[in-house]
Design brief:
Elements (H helix, E strand, L loop, with lengths): L1 H13 L9 H20 L2 H6 L5 E3 L11 E8 L5 E3 L4 H50 L1 H33 L11 H6 L1 E2 L2 H7 L2 E2 L8 H19 L3 E15 L2 E12 L6 E2 L4 E2 L3 E7 L5 E15 L7 H17 L3 E3 L2 E3 L2 H39 L9
Antiparallel strand pairs: 1-2, 2-3, 4-5, 6-7, 6-11, 8-11, 9-11, 10-11, 12-13
């Protein structure tokens, strides 16, 4: 929770003007890694946890000795930082469990740094979509901003669905690829294991069940990536147009008579939304005919108005927009991967495969540490339990 809270705070900061100057990916990675490292290290410092412990639960309610209830084998004492202190009887088992916690924390920190860097462009896309909607609201009103967000959202849903299809396809493929030297599939290691040391002690190493809900950071990344595809599909639908109004006149000395008024519009898109701040040039007389003395003139008054316009998306555009979203999603997935100051750029499929490989290798190493825990539980822990002699005495 500490890491996600920091990322929520950072997302707000990224939406502020000028906040992206140093690179969204690097900034998110730094904040996320800092939060993960501080949280992980603090949880491993006994002196800190010792001051934040609660009460042991459960305990034997039926026995009272020295004004205290005795603990049970499954008694735990929660820490306000998270997690529980459990009872072990051998130093070997305790050390092996500590190694699992340290390894899990280290993998989490490295993964968070990498994920934060990859998430940078997605967060920037969300910020850009929000900024564009605000600009449209300021210039054209609520109707234009709503229309834009509906278009981006609709195209984003298509891109998000495409991403889910790709992920499901990879999962099916991974489940049929054996991981060398093990009895598990590559997919098992990509999904990972439940490394909760309490469950590890009681039921052994368990695979993560299918259908696990996505984490907040995964959802944020997917939403940002979908927003990016939506923006590219909808594009910049603002433009400008010009309107010229002419009123004919005839002047004889100080007597002026006006005639018909004509209006000509250039570049106006039918049914588009007009801007709120048109620029109206002052009227100016244009003389087309006059006598030599200038007492008689024929001409027109000319006035020019320049304004912006927003070409709104219509229901009939849905098919074209969906097709554009699919094309942009494909380009993003299959384009050459690259990097810039904000993080990764393009190559979504390739970066995803590299991420999955990193997960598989990390979870393979973590499985080895977990097996050491189980071996210690069967040997040193079991021997330590047998060596305990309980002697009944008087209170």
């Amino acid at each position: 929770m500490q890491v996600w809270s920091l990322e929520l705070f950072l997302l707000w900061e990224l939406l502020q003007p000028g906040a992206l100057a140093i690179g969204a990916g690097a900034t998110i990675a730094a904040f996320a890694a800092g939060g993960a490292a501080v949280g992980g290290l603090a949880a491993l410092v006994p002196s800190i946890c010792g001051m934040l412990l609660k009460d042991w639960t459960p305990y034997d309610n039926n026995v009272l000795t020295a004004k205290k209830h005795p603990l049970l084998e499954n008694s735990q004492i929660p820490c306000r930082f998270g997690g529980n202190v459990i009872i072990l009887y051998s130093e070997k088992a305790a050390n092996e469990m500590t190694d699992v916690i340290i390894g899990d924390t280290a993998i989490g920190v490295v993964g968070t740094i990498a994920f934060g860097y990859i998430m940078g462009p997605a967060m920037k896309a969300l910020g850009a979509a929000a900024g564009t909607a605000h600009a449209l609201y300021s210039t054209f009103g609520l109707s234009a901003a709503r229309n834009y967000l509906i278009g981006v959202g609709g195209a984003g849903v298509v891109a998000y669905s495409g991403n889910e299809i790709v992920n499901k396809g990879k999962e099916l493929l991974y489940d049929h690829i054996p991981f060398p030297g093990t009895e598990r599939s590559y997919g098992d290691y990509v999904k990972g294991f439940d490394t909760d040391v309490e469950k590890l002690k009681d039921v052994g190493l368990q695979k993560q069940p299918d259908g696990q809900p996505k984490s907040g950071t995964d959802l944020a990344n997917d939403a940002g990536a979908a927003s990016d595809m939506g923006q590219k599909t909808v594009g910049d639908r603002t433009s400008s147009y010009e309107q010229q109004r002419t009123t004919r006149f005839v002047r004889l000395d100080d007597i002026v008579e006006t005639g018909s008024t004509n209006t000509a519009t250039y570049g106006r898109i039918p049914n588009s939304i007009e801007g709120r701040a048109p620029i109206i040039q002052p009227e100016r007389p244009v003389v087309v005919n006059q006598d030599y003395g200038g007492r008689y003139q024929e001409g027109y008054w000319a006035q020019t108005t320049n304004n912006s316009q927003y070409d709104r998306l219509r229901t009939s555009d849905a098919l074209r927009t969906s097709g554009g979203a699919i094309v942009n999603f494909g380009k993003d997935q299959l384009s050459r991967p690259g990097f810039d100051k904000d993080g990764t750029k393009g190559g979504g499929l390739y970066f995803g495969l590299v991420q999955d490989m990193g997960k598989a290798i990390s979870n393979f190493l973590l499985e080895g540490q977990a097996k050491d825990v189980l071996e210690a539980m069967q040997n040193e822990e079991a021997a330590a339990r047998k060596s305990i002699t309980v002697i009944a005495g008087k209170d």
